Amino acid sequence: MKALGRVGERNVAEVNRVMADYFHARDALEAVTREDLVSRLHDGLVTVLDVRSEEEFVLGHLPGALNIPLAELERRLAELPANREVIAYCRGPYCVLSFEAVASLRARGYVVHRLEDGYPEWKAAGLPIETAT
């Protein structure tokens, strides 16, 4: 049983390393910081895309964000302006929803990046949020 535990520990460590490398490599190409997004929002240069569920969006989201859950993205593309940069976000830095949205939109020719953090980090930083009433 101890041997099995050691194998598991080695595999978990390897999986953690691979995941960290994966997210780091993707972040280097696609991530936008909170500070960058605040500036771009102020200048009116971007469309902010929240790919979380509608239930999560209603409870709180970034100002002016458009909510298109990832599962609905393909059929709702017409809601995204094709001539503006899109910044996608979801639940946090390790949430794969925004990675998938970025990949999908880039494949369709959109200029799109991922917010380095997600809604929880944005809110924790004291940045403005909106809720649906």
What this model shows, in words?
The protein has 133 residues and is an alpha/beta fold. It has a single domain (31-124), classed as 3-Layer(aba) Sandwich (Oxidized Rhodanese, domain 1), CATH 3.40.250. Helices cover 47% and strands 14% of the residues. It contains 5 helices and 5 strands. It has helices at 2-30, 34-43, 54-59, 96-107, 119-124; strands at residues 31-32, 46-50, 66-67, 85-89, 112-115. It has a 5-stranded parallel sheet. The chain is globular and about 45 Å long.
- Please bin the fraction of helical residues: 40-55%
One letter per element, helices H and strands E, the order comes to: HEHEHEEHEH
User: And the CATH topology?
Assistant: Oxidized Rhodanese, domain 1
Apparent shape = globular
Unreliable spans: none
Strand order of the largest sheet: 1-5-4-2-3
Structural class of the helices, strands and pairings? alpha/beta
Q: Provide mean pLDDT, rounded.
A: 87
Q: Please state roughly what percent of the residues sit in beta strands, choosing from under 5%, 5-15%, 15-25%, 25-35%, 35-45% or over 45%.
A: 5-15%
Give the number of DSSP strands.
5
Q: Report the top-level CATH class.
A: Alpha Beta
Q: How would you characterize the largest beta sheet? A: 5 strands, parallel
The number of helical segments is: 5
CATH architecture: 3-Layer(aba) Sandwich
What is the radius of gyration computed over CA atoms, rounded to a whole number of angstroms? 17 Å
CATH level-four homologous superfamily name:
Rhodanese-like domain
